[in-house]
Design a protein that fits this description.
The chain is mainly alpha-helical. It is 75% helix and 2% strand. Helix 8 packs across helix 20 and helix 18 (364-383) crosses helix 20 (405-414).
Length: 526
């Protein structure tokens, strides 16, 4: 099966290679209006503008225009946190016990362990955003953005708990033992329980979510990732003198084949990769950050003081406290995707008959992704004086677009570890690979929800996904990448609405679960 898929995928990629070769670098950028990039840009610009006008509809808060999706996610996370009795804090230790397998029953239905489900979901969120996105937030929002990023990450833990618990409660377990779950299922089945009128709303929300998720899987979960990885690879191998300059499609084909061979086996195959790759790449990246912070250990207290002061006494350069808060919240929301609903699809495959136990595991994601990794990245940037650029220069460079986000992070690490840009490039590639394979699963489950569970439908989606890997590595049409990001955040609107409606179900289940853990009815395996 794998060999047939490999050769079929290769034959389909051949015309894509011809397409990819017509890049400005190969054909000559002087021919204005005739390059493939420009043609794609022209097609996608009006589509992207229309989608963004809805998803990122601006609202005015204290003189600042911010996208409506941001308060939609943050306010929802705050409400869920209070409603669930601050589960993000009270269940933290229990979450560690569950993910370590202390409550695993080998006879439970599902496809992957708690740990594998966690790493599969983490691989979809821990990625380029933790490296480039934090640089974006700290450059535009100053050190104080880090504080609000942490707050938003802590609140987002509860959103993940609610959506992943629901994912287990309403999943479908098929005859062959495979599992389908996620927002499209709990929106459909959960609202149907409330009556005919609610059933119609649930179906509409489920379809909306699925369409947005498929678009997001091709864009933000695929082309954005491979494009960033290709750029970083080209940069560290010589820039304009690199073999990959103008030939990014070669790397794209290699990654497409790699992705194809991994995703052909479904969530079990994906989990076998992510449960090794995610801990490794997070470990390498965190180790690098610890080395930099260790070198500047005496400066760490001052850095935290700068972060705290900047959160409440922000320089006018960054737009005051509201401007800083917006940048911090935006980075957290874009990084951990709490409330977007994507992680629920991966967690639904966990081997457990206790939905709350997997929801508890899921709340660790924003903590690892945002509170730990993003904060360490921010500290490295701040403590190295923005990689030697300085705060004001970093702000001006960001506004002017003269220094890329990954470049800023790389420069910060390079001040202590001269060879770290090479390591960072490897990390970016691994981050991109793990994000792509996880998002392929998210998109696949939404695809089969819309078009039916069959091997043919699965194969069609996987082939299309791999083709988009090559396209993403070869083009630079910003409208395509903006479209992909917009589609990911479009998922938040139907998902959070469903969470509001169904959160009483989760609270009842949580109370029952805690009572049974306390009584010993839920067995602990030591």
């Amino acid at each position: 099966m794998a060999k047939r898929f490999y050769f079929f995928l290769t034959s389909l990629l051949l015309p894509v290679l011809a397409f990819a070769q017509e890049t400005p670098a190969d054909q000559g950028a002087e021919t204005t209006g005739t390059t493939i990039d420009e043609k794609i840009q022209a097609v996608f610009e009006p589509i992207t503008a229309a989608v963004e006008s809805v998803v990122f509809y601006p609202i005015n808060i204290a003189g600042f225009e911010i996208p409506f999706v941001l308060p939609w996610l943050i306010v929802g996370a705050a409400i869920f946190t209070v409603y669930m009795g601050f589960i993000n804090i009270t269940a933290f230790k229990h979450a560690l016990d569950v993910v370590r397998g202390k409550f695993d029953d080998p006879d439970d239905e599902g496809e992957v362990s708690h740990f594998q489900a966690l790493t599969a979901a983490l691989s979809g969120t821990v990625g380029v955003g933790n490296i480039a996105g934090v640089a974006f937030a700290v450059a535009l929002g100053g050190p104080g953005a880090t504080f609000w990023m942490i707050i938003a990450g802590l609140l987002g833990m509860t959103s993940k708990f609610v959506e992943c618990t629901l994912g287990l409660m309403y999943r479908d377990v098929h005859a062959d033992g495979s599992v389908s779950g996620g927002p499209m299922y709990y929106l459909d089945k959960g609202l149907k329980e409330k009556g005919p009128g609610w059933a119609v709303l649930g179906k509409v929300l489920a379809v909306m979510f699925s369409i947005a998720c498929i678009g997001g899987s091709f864009g933000g979960g695929n082309m954005v990732q491979i494009n960033q990885a290709t750029q970083q690879l080209t940069e560290v191998t010589g820039g304009v003198d690199s073999f990959f300059y103008g030939r990014g499609w070669i790397f794209g084909v290699a990654m497409a084949i790699t992705v194809g061979l991994i995703i052909i086996g479904g969530i079990k195959s994906i989990a076998k990769v992510t449960d090794k790759v995610v801990p490794f790449m997070v470990g390498v990246y965190v180790l690098g950050a610890l080395i930099v912070l260790g070198y500047h250990i005496t400066d760490i207290p001052a850095a935290f003081a700068t972060i705290f002061n900047g959160a409440f006494n922000a320089d006018a350069l960054y737009g005051g406290i509201v401007g800083v808060l917006i940048q911090g919240f935006r980075r957290a929301a874009f990084s951990n995707e709490a409330g977007v609903g994507s992680a629920s699809i991966a967690h639904s495959a966990a081997k457990t008959d206790e939905p709350v136990s997997e929801g508890v595991v899921a709340l660790l994601e924003p903590f690892i992704d945002t509170v730990v990794i993003c904060t360490m990245t921010a500290l490295v940037i701040i403590i190295t004086n923005y990689g030697g650029y300085g705060a004001e220069a970093a702000f001006n460079n960001k506004v002017a677009g003269t220094v890329g986000d990954i470049t800023l992070t790389s420069a910060a690490f390079e001040t202590v570890i001269s060879w770290f840009p090479v390591v960072l490039s490897i990390a970016v590639i691994l981050f991109a690979l793990s994000t792509m394979i996880s998002w392929s699963y998210y998109g696949l489950k939404c695809w089969t929800y819309l078009f039916g569970e069959s091997k043919t439908n699965e194969a069609i989606y996987k082939i299309i996904f791999c083709i988009f890997v090559v396209i993403g590595s070869a083009i630079s049409a910003s409208a395509v990448f903006d479209f992909g990001d917009a589609m990911i955040f479009a998922m938040a609107f139907p998902n959070v609405m469903g969470l509001y409606i169904l959160m009483p179900n989760v609270r009842r289940a949580l109370r029952s679960y805690r009572a049974r853990v306390a009584s010993g009815e839920i067995t602990r395996y030591d």
